Amino acid sequence: MFFAADGKVEVTKEGMKLCTMGPGKVFGELAILYNCTRTATVRTLVHVKLWAIDRQCFQTIMMRTGLIKHSEYMDFLKSVPTFQGLSEETLSKLADVMEETHYDDGEYIIRQGARGDTFFIISKGKVNVTQEDSVNQDNIHLRELGRGDWFGEQALQGEDLRTANVIAAEPVTCLVIDRDSFKHLIGGLDDVSNKVYEDAEAKAKYEAENAFFSSLKLNDFNIIDTLGVGGFGRVELVQLKNEESKTFAMKILKKRHIVDTRQQEHIRAEKHIMTEAHSDFIVRSEPSESLCFM
Ligand code: 6J7
Hints:
The structure is a single chain. The protein is α+β, with helices and mostly antiparallel strands. Helix content is about 30%, strand content about 30%. It contains ten helices and 17 strands. It has helices spanning about 30-35, 55-80, 90-95, 155, 180-185, 190-195, 200-215, 255-260, 265-275, 290; strands at about 1-5, 10-15, 15-20, 25, 40-45, 50, 100-105, 110, 120-125, 125-130, 140-145, 150, 165-170, 170-180, 220-230, 235-240, 245-255. Helix 2 crosses helix 3 (about 90-95). The protein is elongated. The chain binds ligand 6J7. Ligand 6J7 binds next to strand 10, strand 11, helix 4 and helix 7. Ligand 6J7 binds near residues 129, 142 and 197.
């Protein structure tokens, strides 16, 4: 295998020029790696200075580097609480299959909605996990992860789709494991298979809803029809003026009447129970002042 120190070489295959290469480039590794005959011809264009490594030396270096990496990965995996219950044999298999990948600051490691086949363990740097809110499509920050944290298990368990974005917050190195190895070596771990994010997701959803609904004013709605009339007021079918597909049942109460009949506590309790229900059919957020004081 050769390392170009100075000069210029030309690479051709079956008479066709493939490229030219200058100082700093490496060539001739394929025949050693795959134990095959040379796959292309490399010819000097000018006076060239090269460094050469023979097959045996190359293989020894590769083996040593591989062994060093393997032992580094083993030490790292042992330091991650989730993997501490794994046997030496399993850890060693994991260390064998892991691929090191690097990401720049701001780069998407995972995109929500994409298909996913890999599991990630962070060995260096920090990432942000965000999720697109279904109401107004804003990205909500869920958490920050760092060295020793892992992610990407969701798409490997249920549907193949990524459920959140993971974005490098600085230069990041991850150890990546493919779906099959994940299934055989990690997927059965309690920490991984029982990981639940509901709280963060519910919180994020609530915050997004809150931001959306608290900005609305009574004037933003059209009343379409009356759904019902009760002792304390009425329920109207309303729609957003600027997004007509968004319709709601809006309960309208007269404050004067509530105060006169001393129903304040009752009304507060009703709102509290509705909020606690965590139903997709109930708006949980605080209404804006103008909606409160209508
Ligand atoms: Br870390 C993390 N926190 C969350 C969260 O609160 N909700 C969701 N849905 N995912 C979260 N994640 C990780 C989890 O490992 O982000 C990954 C995105 O790809 C997800 O797995 P994934 O859906 O395969």
